Amino acid sequence: MSTEERNTLGSWIRAKTTPQRIVLRSRICLLAADGNSNNAIAHQLGTSRPTVLLWRKRFEKKGPPGLSEDAPHGPSAQRLSPHKVKAIVEATLHTLPKDATHWSTRTMAIKQGVSHASVARIWDAHGLQPHRIETFKLSKDKRFVEKLTDVVGVYLNPPDKALVLCVDEKSQVQALDRTQPGLPMKKGRCGTMTHDYKRNGTTCLFAALNVLDGTVIGTCYPRHRNEEFLKFLRKIDRETPQGLALHLILDNYGTHNHPHVKKWLDKHSRFHLHFTPTSSSWLNLVERWFAEITRKRIRRGVFKSVPELIAVIEEFIRLNNKNPKPFVWTKKVDEILKKIGHCKAVIETLH
Question: In this structure, what are the phi and psi dihedrals at residue 110, rounded to the nearest 5 degrees?
Answer without folding.
Answer: -65, -40
